[in-house]
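USER: Write out one fold?

ASSISTANT:
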Amino acid sequence: MAKKPQYRLQTLFNIREKEKKAAEDEYGRQKRKVIEAQKLLEEMKTKHAQMIEFREAKKIEYAEKIREGGMKISDITGNDRHIARLKEEEVAYLGEIDKQVEAVKSAERVAQEAMEAMLEATKAFKALEKHKEKWQKAVKRELMLKEEDALDDVAQAQYFAQITKDRSEEK
């Protein structure tokens, strides 16, 4: 049987396959970054809600102490400053949350670009893979035809040998 020829674009096929794998890995990394950024954002929002709850609880606690009458004016102003400082911390933390929202959006953009690159690499690989499959079918068909021709030649040679032998025996 004839030796099967080497696919002439095998090197390109291997390169495209590696590019596809690298693009898939990069997309996976970028997607994990998005998930991590979203998780951090949710944690920050939870912490902000806890800060608000804490400030509200302190307001109620200070109001109770004032009603009980056990506070001096300096204590009341100190408590008001404490509540104001807690409110400032909440506002500052909102700024950090806004930065994290931007970080999430940025990570999502990068992940989207990685996904598009992955799709392009996959498309290029699939096109070459399809070409290779067609080439393999053509090579297989060609080899089968050559084998059939060879078998026909052998059968024909045997037939003529038999006819020659039969004629020589008749004489």
Q: What stands out?
A: The chain has a mean pLDDT of 91. The two ends are 39 Å apart (CA to CA). The chain is about 90% helix and 0% strand. The domain at 10-170 is CATH 1.10.287.1700 (Helix Hairpins).
